[in-house]
Every structure is written in C-alpha cells, then in structure tokens.
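During the second year of the project, the team shifted from modelling isolated chains to modelling whole assemblies. The rationale, set out in the original proposal, was that interfaces cannot be judged from single-chain predictions alone. As a representative example for this report, we include one of the complexes processed in the last quarter. Its constituent sequences, exactly as entered into the pipeline, are reproduced here:
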Amino acid sequence: MEPLLKAEHLTKTFHSQGREAYTAVDDVSFSMFPGEKLAIIGESGSGKTTVVNMVTRLLDVTSGTITLDGEDITHYRGRQMKKIYRKMQMVFQTPSDSFDPRRTLGDGIAESLINHGAGKKEAMLQAEDLLGLCGLEKEFAKRYPHEVSGGQCQRAAIARAIAIGPKLLILDEATSALDVTVQKDILELLTKLKEERNMSYLFICHDIALVQNFCDRVLVMYHGKIVEEGVPDEVVRHPREAYTKNLIDCIL
Amino acid sequence: MAEIIRYDQVDISYNGRLAVHDVSFSAAEGEILGIVGESGSGKSTLIKAAMGLLGRDGLVTRGDIWYKGLDLPDVPPKEMRKICGAQIGMIFQMAGSSFCPIRTVRAQLYEFMTEHEKISKQEFEERAQALLAKFGFQDPKRILDSYPFELSGGMQQRVGIAAAMLLNPKILMADEPTSALDVSVQKQVVEEMLMVRETFGTTILLVTHNLGVIGAMADKMIVLHKGEAMEYGNTKEILADPQSEYTKKLLSAVLKLRR
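Output from the structure prediction step:
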C-alpha cells in the first residue's frame, strides 16, 4: 500500500540572534498509511509540534522531504497549499483559537467550504449538517466561539476540519485541555467519523494512556529524535528505551 | 487528629447565580483532601472563597468556612491579609504567572517574607536556600538569582510551592498544581507535595480534575458536579467502589494504562 503521508529525514534548526543554533527536530522519518491512527508522543520540547508544523507546512523544513498522497509537498507555496489542505486538515489544542472571535461558528465552517468553491447559501446549510454530524444542534451555527464550552468548541473545530473532506486529520493535543468525560465524547466522535469517512489521524499528545486506548501505532520522540516506534500495547508493556520506560512509570 | 478547616453547608453565588450549593466537608491537620470535578463544577470557587479571592461578583451567600474559630468569609480584608500567605498558603496552575516577570526570585521571596515577618537579609538567605534544597534543587543560590522566565515550567511550579511553604502555613490550597505539567514533572510535583505534608505536617486542599493525582495523594476526596457534592469520603473507597452515578461516569471516562 502507498503511504498517505511520508516524512523523510526531516530536520529543523532554529537560528536566533545571539544564541547557538538549536536543532528541534533531528533526522525524523516516518510513514502513515490510509486509515491509520498514528500517535506521536513525547514531553514538552521534544519536537513533536515542530514535526507537525513542518508536515502541515506552517514551518519550512531545514532539510528532508514530505510526501502527501504521492506528491512531494516540501516546497509548496501559496496556491499550491490550498490543494494540500483539501487532503489534510488540523485541529488544535485550544479550539477557540481556530475560530474568528467576531464571527459565528457557522460562518467559520462555511468559510472553509466557500474557499473551496461552494456557494454561500449551500455552504451555510452544509455547515449546519456538519455540526449535526459532530453532535451539535443546528442552532450552534449562530453562536460565537465564546458562547460555547470548550468541548462544544472542539466539536465545531472538528466539523470545520472535516468540512472539505480531508483524508488526513492532524490533531495537535486536541483533547489535552478537555475534561475526561468530554475527552471520551470527542474520541467517540473521532471513531465514528473514521468509520464513516475512512479518515486517518495523526495524533500528537503526551498522554500514553490515551494513545494505548485509541491509536494503532506510536512514535516516541525525545530531544528531537524518534527513539521508539511500535504498537502501543507492545510499547507500554515492553518499552525498549529507558526514556519510554520512564514516561510509562510516571503515569499515576 | 484535630480538625483544622471545615466547610459547613456553603453556598456561593456569582452575580446572583448559584455556583456552589450546600457543600460541607472538613480536613484534619496533616490531611490531604482532594476536590475533583469537571470545568465549571465549582471546585476552584470553593478554595477561592476561603482565601477571599472571589472578586467583586462572588459572594458566600450561606454557610460558614471555619478556620481556628474564625468564619473566613466574615473576616475583614485587613485581617485576612495576615492570614493569607502566613497561615493559609496557595499555589496556582501556572506558578509562573504568580511571579513578577522583571524581578529575581530572591527579590520576590524576600518581599513576600518581610510582608509577614521581621527578618534580616542574611537570615532570609539561609532559610530560603535550606527550603529550596529540601525541594531537591541542587543549586538553590542559582534559583534565587534567576528571573522566573529563566526557569522551566516545572521548576517554576516547584519554586511556587517552595515559596508558599516559606512561612510554614498550616494549610496549603493547591489549585490544579500539576495540570499544566508533563507527566514526568507532574510525578515530581506530587512527590514534593507529599514531602511537604511529611516534613511540615501541612493540611493540603487539592483541587484537580486529574483522578490519577487524587489517587496518588489524597486521603479524602469530594466529588463536585454543577456546584453540588456528589460524593465525599475516603479516597480509596470511592475510587474502588463509587456510590453516586456521576462518580461512576467520571471514573469510566478515565483512560487507563494497561501495563
């Protein structure tokens, strides 16, 4: 099977004035297959978000290549980016940040549809349907981000992300700020969407229990490198690296 | 052991809207009490009420919070300032934000201490360094020399706890002290709070949504939902055999690591 996403030898070095160059991500390679739920875990500063930012092209790579659906996207710019965002969308930790605070959730979702060619009226109707799919009633389309709870806003952010039918959803700590009961609901929603739309998830998180319960494969990052890779059950029960073992021992 | 703080049928409102309703619990000397609940359940409001931090809109509308024969919500602000910090310490989710960003840790801890005690610089230095050493900092002097932004989030949190313990308060109120931290640092902070209880015999009121932290630390726990107490009792018993439907739902939502 062709991988959906392939990252080869990704490296990112940050240069800031008066400081030594800092390599946040060092020669990271991985592949993701269609329908897979892949997790990247690691502590703050391990470079997991930098990897995601490079994959989504929010950040230029220092070296390495990124292939999405057979297409080398490493140096895509401007208009070309629009094409890749049809295939790949993101959900972030703080959902309210994905929406314009002065516009309704419905507007926010519809905007992404309009950008990709839908008519205004049609987009608004579709936005309501998408909210419904994500477990929110139609009237939420008229609410503003500050008028809904964190969990509801995250559902709307997922509705926005899946609006244009991407194959790959990248979730950067998407449930970390939520209560456990809300987190459970969101994970159930993601499972349902995956079945209905055969999506793939790249899950960035620091909660290994979540990874074990939700993902098919896990990459463990430490100091900018992938130190371990495998099936979550296997990694949890028989960690090979001292760092991974330490990470597991810390779970209360 | 003697009871040190007691919440008695407390109601708290914000702008006339009831946030906490009829909550009662107590903690003895050296006891760790966990307050759990989801966002908006009123758990932080409870400890803010004891510290007089409800702000202009918040009010304890019924019930008492007893500490050493004082009903805390009725204590005038001037008296309260003597109690807060010296007798009841508090730590927050982001300890970094309770420090002033443009002054060194030393200057801030010194100011904090002189606010409550007469103390010479020399004496302060000795006490602060000894305390930081107890918290496992290998080079306490460097910590005191640092500005808050020069410390990592985990270190800021640990310095925050150390700062709260400088005056050896009887009670430590901790509002989500580990929620912003990585799991490895979280464990360290939990161990340090247990050390605080061991060493100083401090009573700790711990507000968190993390049931793992509660299980590792708290002797007793109270479960809040929409401002009302769902369950209150021994932590081990509640975690092993929850009685209320809500607690059951909460526990079932926690993802467990299968080792």
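The radius of gyration of chain A is 18 Å. The mean pLDDT of chain A is 92.
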